[in-house]
Amino acid sequence: MLKRRSMSDTANLPEAFAAELTFPENLPVSARRDDITAALNAHQVVIVCGETGSGKTTQLPKIALVAGRGRGGKHGKIGMTQPRRIAAKSVANRLAEETRTRLGGFIGWQVRFTDQVGPDTRIKVMTDGILLAETQSDPEFRAYDTLILDEAHERSLNIDFLLGYLKTLLPRRPELKVIISSATLEADRFSEYFNGAPVVEVSGRTYPVEMRYRPPAEAEAKKPESSAGKPAAIEEEPDFDLALLHAVDELAADGPGDILVFLPGEREIRDAQESLRKHHPPHTEILPLFARLSVSEQEAVFKSHSGRRIVLATNVAETSLTVPGIRYVVDAGLARVKRYSIRNKIEQLKIEKVSQASANQRAGRCGRVAEGICIRLYDEQDFLARPKYTTPELLRSSLAGVILRMKSLRLPEIDSFPFLDAPEPKRIRDGQQLLVELGALDEQGRLTGIGKQLAHLPVDPRIGRMLIAARDKACLHEVLVIAAALTSQDPRERPLENQAAADQKHARFADPNSDFIALLKLWHYLDEQNTHRKSQRKLREGLKAEYLSPLRVREWRDVYGQLTTQVKELGWKVADEPHPTAAEVQNQTADEAFNALLTSRYAVIHQALLPGLLGNLGFL
Hints:
With 620 residues, the chain is of the alpha/beta class. It is built from 25 helices and 18 strands. α11 links the parallel β13 and β14. It is globular and about 75 Å long.
């Protein structure tokens, strides 16, 4: 350990909150502690750049304390932002452990619905959304003398809003210090943005990491059974479950150590969990890790254990969380990303390949406790062809949604806001026009009642407008299904060589009056198939035989689940899928009765959809 200092040496703390400040020598950031302190004392903004594993997240608040920041009271505290709720709680816990204080006292934390910040709190860990919301009650951030924006390289909308807000605020608050922590080499852009702020670079992980490329095609080649006799319905999708099982076996043969697996979403994690359990790896505990887990389920990942542990995680474990004891990483190379479709004029939640920077962040999660191995479930040419950095959320979002958010937060107008990457004026005009069309803005550009409701829905404004109408017309389930379909890719496949066969299979879902009703029929069919499935593999094979993409079906179901969770958090009630009564069925088959029920609800469903699709109307 480096020299220990008590808090009374530097921050004038009350005795009841005396805390130990230690800086572990094995963390690379500790070696740059004096440089960071000197830069913080001499400049208003400091950029700290370092790879995952350098210790930035846990050590920077303590370095700021040693530098005399966070004195509390009228002087203000140190505020640290995290991009996700799960990370804010984890970081606060770790800081409380390292300073040997109780959580909610010297170290406080705040996320949506939870506030554990006391009058004596000196370091407050929160989500970036919480700090952004505080611009309403404390526009000059007088509660803080130092702000640390962690994981700034993720370039979420919240981060970009905060960067722009601070750029305009800092000249009015010369005593406020800002530390921007980035895990990529884009730090020079942050430096230039803040008028040449100094950059302190920190080395990364301690141990080397061996890279291995194992695309699913290699795993397919090892399958003992022949694939002959399968329908040539659609192009074969990569079997990531099989590739994962081979990767786990390969790593198990390399020696002891825990494995962290990166997968795009919750459903993929559940499927992989099922496959691994059936695979029966000996003395192995399999745990999921994603943002929607309960606190107790999330904390299970951080508890000590015997034997091997496999953690199946989304990109929440990429930079926001450090899972202890990881020696191996398996990376599917995919993430669920929100992207605005110019053609469809709607935001879609799609599974996409991660950037090189994200892939390297994932690899950096091993190599901390010993020499590590990262297996990528794609080939090296695929990696080299990927973009270097992740596209900032601002540049892949609907500007209508961005404008709506800025209006609700009472931020300056979008065309004058100092974004790090300014959007094009044409996109701004399109966004404003759409909000007027949806009734979210009046002619003077002010938020209407509908606009205020839309601002509470974290979805594309068009989709949000449909959902508000659907809530009022009591057809929320049906419109959620359709909204999820509009924001994901159509699961129906029509390969060139089998178009007639595909059309014949899909004919059962067609509706003479509405493509939206056809989507509801397809959803009902998929729900029935999923309920009566014998196994995930059998379900996938059955869908392929019907010219339906299992991957896109999964995406559709995932998006529906996320939209449903979001509206339920607002207190909206979502009824189950309507089913015909026994009297309604009479001499009909179950499918005929369901179709008749849909026909009876045709008017209300389309009346709910219409307010969000006014721009798609044509005149005859």
